[in-house]
Amino acid sequence: MNAPQHFRSAQGLASIRALNLGDPGECARIDSWVMAQAAGSPFHRPKWLNAIERATGQEAHCLIAEAGGEIAGILPLHIMHSPLFGRALVSSGFAVGGGILSGNPVAVKQLAEAAWQFAERRSCPTVELRGGAMPGGAWTEKSDAHANFARALTSDDEAELLAIPRKQRAEVRKGLANGLRITTGNGRQDRRHHYAIYAESVRNLGTPVFPQSLMDAVLDGFGDQADILTVLDGDRPVASVLSLYHNGIVMPYWGGGIWDARRLRANDVMYYALMNHARQKGCHSFDFGRSKTGSGAYHFKKNWGFEPDPLSYAVRTADGGEPRDVNPNSPKYKMQIALWQRLPLSIANRLGPWIAKGLG
């Protein structure tokens, strides 16, 4: 970065600088600060930034606003580069969240401006802020495209089941009657089962699969703050989800099921089992994550009794430029999605990670 930028606020003189993500002490300081913030998320943590860079090669950076020796805000970033989808500076890469984490309005604007200057120096025509404090000004904000779904967990397994609306609860009960088994962990077999199911699931949706190395890097980086829950029909894995745990909140993040999972209601069993598993780990809330407004996933989560909470995103582009379009629901990808859904799984799994590295 250039020389530190300074501003005056109620907190006194502050500066913007880049975090050295290779310094364990500095990363630990930022991590502790993020964990103390109500709006902090896994996607603000150095663990996430480093895992993404290690697994995909997309450069990780983090801007810090400091005032009087204290942290006033941070902005985690990845430089996303793809021969198919171009370049963008994203907060955060491969995440449904991120953005500026700060309660200081002046720090918010300074971090946003520093990010834009950084993007210009690194030839990134677009900067995407996926949530966080909105900077205003030259940034275009959108709050109607996606919503998040979260609610508190209950006191025990039976109460959790009764908290699910009647029609969806009936589906869970049908799944429970199928004698499905549940396993949890983050070992080699857990990872193998999860990736095989996830890869098949996203192929069926017409989406290139992320590399196995991405899931491995996140699991390794987060340790006991991430795990995999898998549903088995006998010895056959049929549904699986990789979840993140953050300050008492469980977030099912990468999950899916094979075709037969629908007949078995395995996905319904999976999420109910995860609620119970998370409560046993000391969690108090279930974050079902982001869905595009009006999509099938959006209505699925509403059927579980979750209320949508609109998310705000901000984008800034170079003069005359258009933001990159990596939305799988975009009409321009309709033919590609239909083609991808017909690919043999072996081919989709071979080509998908190369394409998906640029989609985060």
Automatic annotation (TrEMBL):
All residue ranges annotated as the BioF2-like acetyltransferase domain in the record: 169-302
Superkingdom: Bacteria
Entries under SUPFAM superfamilies matching the protein: Acyl-CoA N-acyltransferases (Nat)
PANTHER family reported for this sequence: LIPID II:GLYCINE GLYCYLTRANSFERASE
Name of the protein in its database record: FemAB family XrtA/PEP-CTERM system-associated protein
Record organism: Sphingorhabdus arenilitoris
